[in-house]
Structure formats: C-alpha cells, structure tokens
Design a protein that fits this description.
By secondary structure, this protein is an alpha/beta fold. About 35% of the residues lie in helices and about 20% in strands. It has a 6-stranded parallel β-sheet with strand order 3-2-4-5-1-6, with helices on both faces. The chain is globular, with a radius of gyration of 15 Å.
Length: about 160
C-alpha cells in the first residue's frame, strides 16, 4: 500500500465501474488500517447504491450534500441553482477534510461530472488538490478529465466499454 501513499488518482471514461474501482481502493485501504471518506456528487439523494458502506463505518464515511431526490439532469433550472450551492459546499467540505487531515483517503465521486456541468471549475478542484498533504490519497471519478487535472494527477485511468 505504501507505493499508493499520497497519490492523486483519477478514474474517468465512458465505461461503468469508476465508482466501484474507487470504493475498492477504499476497502483495500481500510484493510491496511486506514480511514476513508467518500463524497458523492451528482448522484441524487435517491441513489442508495453505496448505502452498504454504512457497514464499514467509521472506517469509511459517506457524504452527500445534494438535497433533491432525483438526478441533476432532471432538475428544473431553479433546483439546479440550489443544488449547485450544495455541490460547492461539498467541495468546500472536501478542502476542509484535506486541510485537517481527517482521513487517509478522500474519494470525490463524480466530481468530474460537476466540472463537466460547469458547477465547479478546474481552479476549484486544483485548490482541493493543493490542500492535500503528501500522505493523503485523493481519488476523483467522472466521465471526462481536463488537461489541467491530467497534468497534476499522479495516475489517470480511463475505463472504457470494449464490447
């Protein structure tokens, strides 16, 4: 696990499994006595696919800042404005978690989707990366990764559907 220490990793691409790979990394980390925090973006509160993580508390903690029970794409323009604030609060929370070294691994699930929708900027995410200590591992997921993030990441993995 030590070779993984402090890396900034991105799991991206059109394929399924980005979140699963990231959660697998968290489970591996707790097997080594580490603690992980997962912050989910753009999944909607109705998404309960990761509720099994509650069995791993307090070693893995899951946070969602969005309030609506539907996917972001299905929201009205007014609801999107409200959720944008909630999503930005989630990113501010991520920065605080990293600055206070509250965990050994932080997973920002679908943060790249928030970037794709224009809710957060490269600069916002680069600010979060800048708050990270050398020991803390940061994992981000989403479909599309920008060149700016590619350049600062230690590892970028693209998952694609082959067949």
């Amino acid at each position: 696990m030590d070779e993984e220490k402090g890396l900034t990793q991105i799991y991206c691409g059109p394929g399924k499994g980005k979140t699963s790979v990231a959660i697998g990394q968290a489970i591996r980390a707790i097997g080594h006595g580490k603690r992980a925090i997962v912050i989910q973006f753009l999944k909607g509160r109705a998404t309960s696919k990761l509720d099994y993580l509650s069995a791993l508390e307090p070693d893995v903690r899951l946070f969602r800042f969005e309030k609506k029970d539907k996917y972001y794409e299905d929201l009205t323009p007014e609801e999107k404005l409200e959720e944008n604030l909630n999503i930005r609060n989630g990113l501010n929370f991520a920065r605080k978690v990293l600055a206070t070294e509250e965990c050994d691994m932080l997973i920002l699930d679908e943060i790249l989707g928030a970037l794709e929708f224009g809710i957060v900027s490269d600069e916002d995410i680069l600010g979060v990366i800048g708050a990270k200590s050398q020991e803390t591992e940061l994992i981000m997921t989403g479909n599309i990764v920008t060149d700016a993030l590619k350049n600062v990441a230690d590892r970028v993995v693209s998952l694609e559907i082959v067949k």
